[in-house]
Design a protein that fits this description.
Layout lengths: L12 H15 L3 E2 L1 H8 L3 H14 L2 E3 L5 E3 L2 H28 L2 E8 L2 E8 L14 E2 L5 H7 L4 H11 L12 H14 L2 E4 L6 E7 L7 E8 L5 H30 L1
Antiparallel strand pairs: 1-3, 2-3, 4-5, 4-9, 5-6, 7-8, 8-9
Helix pairs in contact: 1-3, 4-8
Length: 260
Amino acid sequence: MTERKPGPGGGVQSLQRAFELLEGLADTGGEASLSELATTTGLPMPTIHRLIRTLLTLGYVRQNSNRRYALGSRLIRLGEGASRQFGTWARPYLAELVEQVGETANLAVLERDEVVYVAQVPSTHSMRMFTEVGRRLLPHGTGVGKAMLSQVPPEEVRELLHRTGMPAYTPHTHTEPEELLEHLRGIAAQGFALDESEQELGVRCIAVPLADTPVPAAVSVSGPEGRLTKEAVDHLAPLVQRTAEQLSAHLAEADLEFGA
């Protein structure tokens, strides 16, 4: 029987390296050559060959017609399941935020270059914002998307925008990369993003990124501009920031408990 070599923290080294390889693929935009993976991960080429063969067999990696490797479709089910669980434990925090601000609260993550809404607690107002859980949007035109991009290095943002394009959802949507990057610097400085009729006319959104999460994530509140006024932003933004801090702390505690 072959002895498995323990990795850092007592884990199995081959398993750790397989995940490093998958994360390396994700970091390159989801597709890479073997040499690019070697550069990204620092793993020896023989190890990469061996792991790629296993991941191909299992369906977690696929080989494209250009002979480059990409993330496999079998990962989708895992990602969707993790997103659902993420949304489930976040709902109590979102419900508390709705009680405080009186508007709909959302939690979203950045997945495969898109914003994915994983949880929502609606406002009690008859006129309220509703975004279906699971809905996908491009990040440049949403408050949560801009909040998350404000935490991403500028060159990575440029690469993402090159892949997705910047279509206009409304006349107020940012459609120029360098203009958006300047806007993101302001968001990072103030600690929250505003969507002012950029995704949907007549709607304002306050969004705050979560800190130190495995994937970019953000929490937001959204409502009609008539209720969620510019004046209201000053006292509502700190409440959204507090919820983001609570969610980030919850995730950090969960990681510590798992690693204990």
